[in-house]
Design brief:
The complex is a heterodimer of chains A (255) and B (223).
Chain A: H1 4-25, H2 31-52, H3 60-87, H4 89-92, H5 100-127, H6 139-163, H7 166-181, H8 193-201, H9 203-217, H10 223-247, H11 251-254
Chain B: E1 3-17, H1 24-33, E2 38-52, E3 56-60, H2 67-74, E4 82-87, E5 91-94, H3 107-117, H4 122-136, H5 151-162, E6 169-173, H6 181-196, E7 200-204, H7 208-214, E8 217-220
The chains are: A mainly alpha (255), B alpha/beta (223).
Chain lengths: 255, 223
């Protein structure tokens, strides 16, 4: 007897391949389109924040590009995952398989895009002569946190979206706000002390800050930040798991 | 003999919403007006059914009586409101035209995708690939995008994949009608072969003639 696990990982892979093919086959410069988005965003923001106003800090270009790439990944992954269940309505109505596979596959294919974008960032890092140290060993952990956070939010959003179409509009608004209350264009050091605690409740703020610290600035992340981020990520993940587990058996009727 | 499918006291009630859209606004409005916002529709009330291993059962009945719902409940796609459903063995559902297909991909790519949806690994699909293609009779169109397929061609492709999954139970929902006569004959031949292999087939159809000829049991659903 074959384990269903193998069939499911196979299905995740097959969904990912399909999504990647569909995304890039009709536009022949394919991947560059998804790179163009963060690059354009970066260029505009960089112009504004190096000519009109300035943050006193080293490597602002790397700081900003990494923030924009990670934020772009977060926004794209959560939005795509929310729409993914609806996009697969036909199969959901007819064939049984764990619905989480759809969310996992959607997150997975956006992660592939992130890897390609990070590669571009690495090139810029080498050009800027950044030396990395053993602190890099933190990176897998922070990226794992990011992936888990996105997965948790994706589970919540996709469940809500199947029930309420307003979720998409609401999420777009929240993303707009999120962009400004997350330290993407500004460093945590310019945030007033009493605001810092509130901003760090958003796990994304902690994760992005920590990835920058170990990757660009070679500094040690604060233990308190690590704890808060770890905890809030975990809570969001568990909420997502719980909601999805309880509601996904109804998807076929709701869609 | 073990039953392949056993359904005990199955009740299924659907909630049909009044509004077409599913927005938060409607929910809030309904809350304030203290109305339910949906109508209840009872499709099954204490249905009992056991299908033996190796049986070929045909289900008939007018539109909207719950034939497809029954198949979906057997396939675990929707859950019963109350009652128990026991399934013994692996299910291969073939429930509707083009389900799970991607129109923008070629037939070849779709065979792998659909195979995966039905629980096959890439390697298994590769092993059965030639058989699937031969049965469907669509060899010439392997690299054609599915959006250029006719409905009959899609049914052929979907059905060919579904019967190569090596399942113990095959669920077929009124889809053979789109295939031409030659293909339908082929399908019933396969059903006969499956029956001999001890596989269970549940077929929903309006073709009473065919059901009388091929099935060893007929179940007619009434409102």
């Amino acid at each position: 007897m074959r384990s269903p696990y193998k069939a499911y990982t196979n299905l995740i892979r097959e969904f990912m391949i399909t999504e990647f093919k569909l995304k890039y086959q009709s536009s022949f410069i394919g991947y560059f389109w998804s790179l163009l988005n963060p690059l354009l965003m970066f260029s505009v923001l960089y112009l504004v924040f190096s000519m009109f106003t300035r943050f006193e800090m080293e490597y602002y270009h790397l700081f900003l590009l990494l923030g924009v790439i990670l934020w772009g990944y977060f926004a794209e992954a959560t939005t795509n995952a929310m729409l993914a269940i609806q996009a697969k309505a036909g199969i959901i109505k007819k064939i049984y398989f764990p619905r989480e596979i759809i969310v996992l596959a959607s997150n997975g294919s956006t992660f592939l895009t992130l890897l390609l974008n990070l590669f571009v960032f690495m090139v810029l890092m080498v050009v800027s002569k950044i030396t990395v140290t053993v602190k890099l060993l933190y990176l897998p952990f922070f990226f794992l946190e990011l992936v888990v956070l996105i997965y948790g939010i994706s589970l919540i959003l996709s469940t809500l979206y199947v029930r309420y179409i307003d979720t998409l509009h609401l999420w777009r608004v929240l993303l707009q706000i999120g962009f400004w209350i997350t330290p993407i264009i500004y460093p945590m050091s310019v945030v007033p002390e009493e605001m810092k605690k509130i901003i760090l409740l958003n796990p994304l703020a902690g994760i992005i800050t920590q990835i920058r610290e170990v990757l660009i600035y070679n500094t040690h992340p604060l233990t308190s930040t690590m704890m808060i981020t770890f905890f809030s990520t975990g809570v969001i993940f568990l909420i997502g798991k719980y909601i999805f587990k309880n509601k996904s058996s109804k998807f076929a009727e709701w869609i | 003999m073990i039953n392949a499918i056993e359904i005990n006291n199955l009740t299924k009630t659907f909630k049909i919403p009044h509004e077409k859209s599913r927005g938060i606004k409607e929910e809030v409005v309904n809350l304030f007006k203290k109305r339910r916002g949906y109508e209840e529709l009872k499709v099954f009330d204490n249905l009992n059914l056991s299908i033996k291993k190796g049986e070929f059962i045909g289900i008939t009945g007018p539109n909207g009586v719950g034939k497809s719902t029954l198949l979906k409940i057997i396939a675990k796609v929707i859950q019963p409101t109350s009652g128990k459903v026991h399934i013994n063995g692996k299910i291969s559902p073939f429930l509707e035209l083009g389900t799970g297909f991607q129109n923008e991909l070629t037939a070849r790519e779709n065979i792998f995708l659909y195979g995966a949806i039905l629980g096959l690994t890439r390697k298994e699909v590769r092993e059965k690939f030639d058989e699937i293609v031969t049965f469907s009779g669509l060899k010439k169109f392997l690299d054609t995008k599915l959006k250029n397929f006719s409905s009959g061609m899609m049914a052929r492709l979907g059905f060919s994949i579904a019967i190569h999954v090596n399942a113990d139970i095959l669920l077929v929902d009124e889809v053979l009608a789109v295939g031409d006569e030659e293909f339908q004959k082929k399908c019933y031949k396969i059903f006969n072969k499956f029956k001999k292999e001890g596989k269970t087939i549940v077929l929903v159809s309006h073709d009473k003639e065919a059901i009388k000829r091929f099935c060893n049991r007929e179940m007619s659903l009434r409102k």
